[in-house]
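U., I forgot to send this yesterday:
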Amino acid sequence: MSTKQWTALLLVFIWLGQDIGLARQKPETLQRTPGRLMWSELAPVVVDRKVKTTLPDGTRIEGQALAVRPDALVMDITKTSNRKAHPKGQTEIPRSSLMELGVIKDRGPGKLIGGILGTMGGIAAATGLAIATENAAAALAGYLVVLPLAAAGGYYAGKAADRRVTRIVIAPDRPSTSSGEEAQQ
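Result:
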């Protein structure tokens, strides 16, 4: 192999390593320590926020929490792992089916930074491919295929790095104190 081909191969491996490293990056705050809240305390924390949970039948759902009723969580499901049992759209999730919720916050510059780094890595990889092949058609194909894939990969890796999920364990409600005080009198 010539020096140009070795350089091109090195650039491709650097690009792959960069994208793999960015995709596997997990911020320390991605999974925060779970909070324990009673059902009666849940509404201010989850209403109008994106939430996710796993139901007793194993179905994973994600969507917007619309309301917390005494007997159910009203949710607009946007993602589901079992469309037949739990289709997309507005539904009520029974209180007895919820043990834990994840409140999702997507924020930060990760999508922008990931997209830029992915694009730069794609340019490096496509340039390396062009140098290695010394063929105009292969170089053009490299720029048309590798560059968009690398940019998209960087964007989605940055999006995953931006996502923060706060776990909330739903604790049983405490018994009413007024009935306990009446029993003492």
